[in-house]
Every structure is written in structure tokens, then in C-alpha cells.
Amino acid sequence: MKPFTYHAPTTVAEAVEMLDKYQNSCAVVAGGTDVVIELNERHKTPEHVISISKLDELRYVKEEDGMVKIGALTTFTDLENNPYVKEKLPALYETAIHVGSPQIRNLGTIGGNVVNASVAGDSPTTLVTYGASVVLRSAKGDRIMTIEDFNKGPGNCAIRPDELMVEARFPVIGPDEAVGYFKIGKRKSLAIVVLAVSIYVKRTPDNKVEDCRVVLGAVSKHPMRSPELEALLKGKQLEASVLYDTLPAFTDAVQAAIPTRPSVVYKREGVRGAARRCYDQILSQLGLA
User: Fold this and answer.
1) Helix or strand or coil: residue 22?
2) Where is each FAD-binding PCMH-type domain found (predicted)?
3) DSSP single-letter state for residue 45
4) How many CA atoms lie within 13 A of 179 on its CB side?
5) Cβ(74)–Cβ(92) under 8 Å?
């Protein structure tokens, strides 16, 4: 690890001021589950390290102005233990409880997971499905952009050197909306995502799919929405047998996304089971199971 100057601001304003001052010569550490490894292995060699772990003002989950707002320093354990998340955002809850180990969940933050932009990141897939945006703060003010626009690929996001991600936000989920999420890993615990499926559905009064988002994780350089699967789902009756008839199309979507990757063999099979679990969750949330 290359020597560096360590900073521990206690307010967001102070952190943003430091970012404005040091910009390209600094690294930001939240829980440190990813960045510390990069520092140890010299993948990053900053002159300054800014720890934002003391910024308690960025730890929250709240409903405000028709939006669900999650502070960037909210940990996965915070999400797991939050009654609102468990009751109102079951897909986010499912995401949180299956992130790494208890130690990782205690330290890992929603902001760090998003900014790290890993192909196997847990929360970005779910956040895209919820239609989330990120709030980025700098000395110039706030900038808001969708998760889809923010994530540029493995380890690459649209955050600027002088910006700090302070929040993820998305519209409140209504009684006629539901989101399902299912992750496939190579083992039951400490599992890195090898495939994730997340589906958002809004229903009509006669229980048909009015609108939807279908997102596949770990089959592209970032969480991938599938326009073909979304078009297929729209107008479908929200019944298990009808929804299950679409499962072969998920195999086709994976095959098209990674036709020559060795993992396509098991991902194109596993995706049907993951999508089916999402459908079951959605039907249950809508009282149709």
C-alpha cells in the first residue's frame, strides 16, 4: 500500500470541500469492503484517502415527497433491519439479506455498492428495477441521474472526481405495483452474484401488466434491462400459468446477451428458475398467489 494522507470529515459539506480540493489525487472510503482491497493491491494509489464513515447524516431510509430516499451510507444490515424496507420494499430486503457475509453487510453501504459498479454488484440490479436515481453532490451543487445512466460498466460510473454520492431515490411503490428479485450464487453464503433477475410490474384494474421493467444482472457489463422481455410481459394476465409461459424467453435473452461466454450454459438454464421466483414474489405481493 502506497503511503497517503488520511482525512475523516464529520459533515457532508466538509467532505465535499475536500473532494473539491484534492479531486483526482484522492480516493473515498465508506465501508471499505472494496476500496481497501484496491489500496492494498495498489490498484489505486491516491495521495489522499477521504473516509466518509463518520457522516451519519447519510444513514437513513425515509419516504418523502412521493419518493423513497436512502442515504448513501446506509449499510445492508441497516436495510435488513429496517421495518419499512421489509414491509414495503421486499425486493430490496431480499437483496440486502443475501449480500456477502454478516461482516460485509455490517460495513458495506448502498452508495459504495453503486459507485463501485461491479458486474456482480447486488444492489444496482434491484435499484434499476425500482427506477432509481442517484444524487451526486459537489461544491457546485447537486446533480441527479438515473442508475442506468450512472453505471457505465465494470468499475466505471459517471461520478466526477469532485462529487460524492449522497442518496439513492425512487418513486414510492403503490398498491398496484410489485418488485421481485432473485439471485443465483455458487454457494448459499458469501456468494458473489453469478446471475440476478429483478422484475417490476404495475397492474391494471383487471390484473393485467400495464407497465414493467425486467433487469438481468451479471450478464452484461452493467445491469441490463430487456426491452424484448418487457414488451412480451405487457398486457399479460397476472396469473402464474400465463407468466410461466414467458420463461423460455428469459433463456433467449441470456443467450443473446452472452452467446460466447462459457457461463452462458448454466445462466441460460438458471435464469428461468430465477424469473419464476420473481413472478411468485410479485403475485404474492399483489395478493394473487
Assistant:
1) helix
2) 1-175
3) -
4) 28
5) no
**What are the residue ranges of helices labelled H in the chain?**
12-22, 35-40, 76-81, 83-88, 90-97, 102-107, 110-116, 123-129, 147-150, 227-233, 240-244, 247-257, 264-285
Q: Of 137, 116, 161, 156, which Cα lies nearest the Cα of 57?
A: 137
Strand partners, 199: 180, 214
Give the model confidence (pLDDT) of 112-131 as tens digits.
999 988 766 789 999 999 99
Q: What is the pLDDT of residue 242?
A: 98
> What mean pLDDT is reported for the chain?
91
Residue ranges, the chain, pLDDT below 50: 189
Q: Are 220 and 257 in contact (CB under 8 A)?
A: yes
Calpha distance 121→163 (Å, rounded) = 21
pLDDT score of 189: 47
**What is the per-residue burial (b if ≥16 Cβ within 10 Å, else e) of 226-251?**
beebbebbeebebeeeebeebeebbb
The three-state (H, E, C) secondary structure of 223-258, written as one string: CEECHHHHHHHCCCECCHHHHHCCHHHHHHHHHHHC
C-alpha cell at 108: 458495506
Cell of 240: 402464474
CA distance 42 to 256: 36
Q: Are strands 5-7 and 48-51 parallel, antiparallel or unpaired?
A: parallel
Quick one: pLDDT at residue 222? 83
Determine the pLDDT at residue 192.
62
Cell numbers at 254, concatenated: 441470456
CA separation for the pair 38, 49 (Å, rounded): 12
pTM above 0.85, yes or no: yes
